[in-house]
Design a protein that fits this description.
By secondary structure, the chain is of the alpha/beta class. 43% of the residues lie in helices and 16% in strands. The longest helix has 18 residues.
């Protein structure tokens, strides 16, 4: 349960009015008293409720959703699934875009907690799960989105990205490709690391196949274009014959660099496969093969888990839901003629 101002006052041996002054007019309170109240706030985990006037009866009817990159259509579909499911229970989704920046991610978590949201859905950038666990202990349900909870301490909805990475590379190998490049990064993003791990496993199972890693700073079209341009400028003897991009935005950028900015043919010279199966994949100048994730279903399932946790309270046991990815084959990985 959330800690009240009255509990803070009792712990600091001051009045409720003094706590209010520390929060709103600290210059009117003796420094020693301010320090004592702030220590009590920290010890109890008190979170200021700026929306208290509207929320006397409890938490708001809003759910916070933090995604890695709102420009990625995959996360747009996740948000749509969450929004549609939340609306069934008369709730709304507040969308936050971390933009693959941990400081922005933390700022949204702080904001949502201050606003007493009904719960938080998040596709976290790194492995700062203790912060999310503290959020739960303070009474805000949390569900990981597109990311599993390895210790099962937080509910999660994910796709088996190791399997997805393996599917992508096995497909490339089955079409006769032997020199494969993985384009993606940073690997601090768990989904990227898992897809790379799957790629490595598929290569390890095959004979005469190599895998190189081309790092990117983020998962955007521009980063894919830069990676594709760097590959295109290599001597012909050093070109890979296949590329697995960590998501479809990267794949679109790679495709632009290879065939629009250069003279490399896809798939004749280099086969290309992405991940997520966003709408742009099928509509690309060379339709892109991809690994499909059920984005809308991920969003709606995450809301289901969050509402169950909110209703159950302290007696809730975190749940893990994992979907399986699907290979979608299009022109970009067509086998070489002959």
């Amino acid at each position: 349960m959330a800690v009240s101002v009255r509990e803070v006052a009792a712990a600091a041996s001051v009045s409720v009015g003094t706590v209010s002054n520390v929060l709103n007019r600290p210059d009117k309170v003796a420094p020693a008293t301010v320090a004592r109240v702030l220590a009590a706030i920290e010890e109890l985990g008190f979170v200021r409720n700026d929306a208290a006037r509207q929320l006397r009866a409890g938490r708001s009817r809003s759910i916070g959703l933090v995604v890695l990159d709102v420009r990625n259509p995959f996360f747009t579909e996740v948000a749509r699934g969450a929004e549609d499911r939340a609306a069934e229970d008369g709730m709304t989704i507040l969308l936050g875009n971390s933009d693959e920046n941990v400081d922005r991610e933390h700022a949204y978590l702080d904001l949502f907690e201050e606003q007493r949201v009904h719960g938080v859905l998040i596709s976290p950038l790194g492995d700062d799960l203790p912060r999310l666990e503290r959020l739960r202990r303070r009474g805000t349900p949390v569900v990981l989105v597109d990311r599993e909870s390895e210790d099962r301490s937080i509910s999660s909805v994910s796709v088996d990205d190791v399997v997805g990475g393996s599917l992508a590379v096995r497909h490339l190998i089955e079409t006769g490709r032997r020199r494969i490049a993985f384009v993606g990064g940073p690997t601090s993003i768990r989904q990227v690391a898992d897809r790379l791990e799957g790629a490595r496993r598929a290569v390890a199972e095959a004979s005469g196949v190599t895998l190189e890693v081309v790092d990117t700073e983020s998962l955007t079209v521009l980063q894919g274009r830069a990676a594709g341009e760097a590959i295109r400028q290599r001597p012909a003897s050093e070109l890979p014959d296949a590329i697995f991009a960590a998501n479809d935005l990267l794949a679109v950028g790679v495709l632009q660099a290879l065939i629009m900015l250069g003279s490399v043919r896809v798939p004749e010279d280099i086969a290309l496969i992405g991940y997520d199966d966003i709408d742009f994949a099928a509509a690309a100048v060379v339709p892109l093969s991809s690994i499909r994730q059920p984005a809308t279903l991920i969003g709606s399932t995450a809301v289901d888990l969050l509402l169950r946790e909110a209703d159950a309270g302290d007696g809730f046991t975190p749940e893990q839901v994992e979907f399986q990815p699907e290979l979608v084959v299009r022109d970009s990985t067509r086998p070489p003629a002959g």
